[in-house]
Amino acid sequence: MSAKASTLRSSGIFSSHKPAKSTVVRPITFRDIQGYLDTSSNYLAPFRPMGAGSSSTDCSTATAGTVIDMTGMDQIMKIDAYADTVTVQAGVRLHRLVDALADNGLELAGNYDLMNRTVGGAVAGGCIGPSMTADGAFFARHVIGMKVITPAGDFLEINQQKKNILNAFRLSYGMLGIICVITLRVRPIKGFAVNHRRCTIDQLAASASKLATANIGLKFYLLPFRDRVYLDLRSYSPETRSTHSIPWKIKDWGESTVLPHVFKSIGRIVPISRFRYRLIDGISEATQGLVNNRLVSSGDNAATQSLRVNGLQNTSPLQYSTWCFPATDFSVVAKAYENFCLDTYSETQFRCDMPTVGFLLARDRSALLSPTFDEPMFALRAVSTPCGGWEDFVIDFAEFAQHWGGSPFFNQTRSIEPDYARHAFGSRIDFFRKIRRQLDPANRMMNSFLSQYFL
Ligand SMILES: Cc1cc2nc3c(=O)[nH]c(=O)nc-3n(C[C@H](O)[C@H](O)[C@H](O)COP(=O)(O)OP(=O)(O)OC[C@H]3O[C@@H](n4cnc5c(N)ncnc54)[C@H](O)[C@@H]3O)c2cc1C
């Protein structure tokens, strides 16, 4: 067993000056997990499962308890090209799965960035990307079966016949049990066309409701201080047969690796904020214009999913907080978000150095805690390299989002007010809590962050 200290990151609501140590274990088998959870074992609650550790909240921390690092359970167990399904252990990284499926002419039925995350983390946490509306909003939607160890250490098998429990386990943030094996629906590789557009925030606002009803995939980069939006619009196209992954890899490498490091260095060597941000925004615009507009015009879910940020597990060069906003209000929210960024900067001198990333999310009822259960939404992810002022910014962003009816992910959204979570999910969070209490009456998988919302 390897044991090491893990610290409690600030959630914006709770903070700890002297974090107690947690033990980190890395199981290989079901039995290992049952051993940790055995009440006579030396391992202490809370028990928190962890995948790649790329979440931005304290959802997987276990102060004085046990973090169960699932990355050792990383077998791709079965690819069934006739039934279009794949069965994997929860610790498999998405990029390995995508590559193995592509070797069999298959792909995930949706498009998701950040390929270093684990399948278990993508099912139990929010996992979104520029998926076409018809493919649903979340990775978890495509799960058709799971093998789970419950908080009491029992083995539980869930399939589509147990719809309610399957829907509760999707986006369950590791509160209902440890997901060990997952069967996903996949499909033959299917090409799509990619269009890039540049517009102002007003123009995005004006077309928001039209975009929300189209069967497209949409990712955008919003630069509030330049009044610019760069859109990546995808639509299925029978003519697009195959595509090469190299241009997509260059694009992702530019966005996820080069830009954060360049911006971090500029932050150190250009002390005057006016010049620093002018330079940073100029580089962002040039990158979007060059890399995106020129490099890629077609894709498929096998070739485009390459974003592999190295050094995850709390050491990513980026910090972020994501909120989803109803598509019906987005024409107003987009403009309000621009004003919020400008006002915050003039009052506090803080602004994010990376562009805000946005996605269109389809209405998706596959998970009880789905933020888009009732309607399609636009997600806005504020992103920045680490710098002073960020912690206050995420609290202000949460206030802004809560005012505009935003909906959170408990692993990606910082500083959610507990009362607001109840308001955002209504009776669905009550139903989830009821299932949680049945599976974990002793609250063995609750940490202080999750307790705010789910006890
Ligand atoms: C640079 C960067 C870019 C990102 N881009 C995106 C993006 O484009 N789209 C997006 O949606 N997210 C993005 N994220 C957020 C994050 O990567 C996702 O939410 C991801 O799905 C989390 O996966 P993970 O393996 O890191 O899980 P973790 O962060 O380790 O865990 C997520 C949650 O799932 C639970 N969990 C993990 N494994 C299990 C298991 N086996 N059983 C039960 N519960 C489990 C954990 O307890 C936790 O509550 C990004 C993050 C970074 C740092």
Summarize the entry for a quick read.
The protein is an alpha+beta fold and 455 residues long. It has twelve helices and 17 strands.
**Rg estimate, integer Å:** 21 Å
CATH class of the largest domain: Alpha Beta
Within CATH, the superfamily of the largest domain carries the name FAD-linked oxidases, C-terminal domain
Instruction: Name the helicity range.
Output: 25-40%
Query: How many angstroms separate the termini?
Result: 31 Å
CATH topology of the largest domain: Vanillyl-alcohol Oxidase, Chain A, domain 3
Explain what you see.
Helix 5 runs antiparallel to helix 8 (330-348). The chain is an alpha+beta fold and 455 residues long. It folds into 2 domains: 72-189, 2-Layer Sandwich (Uridine Diphospho-n-acetylenolpyruvylglucosamine Reductase, domain 3); 191-417, 3-Layer(aba) Sandwich (Vanillyl-alcohol Oxidase, Chain A, domain 3). A hairpin with a 4-residue loop joins strand 4 and strand 5 (85-89). An 8-stranded antiparallel sheet has the order 13-10-12-11-15-16-14-17, sandwiched between helices. Strands 4, 5, 6, 7, 8 and 9 form a 6-stranded antiparallel sheet that branches. It has a 3-stranded parallel sheet with strand order 1-3-2, with helices on one face. The chain contains 12 helices and 17 strands. The longest helix has 24 residues, at 246-269. It starts with 22 loop residues before the first strand and ends with a helix. The structure holds flavin-adenine dinucleotide.
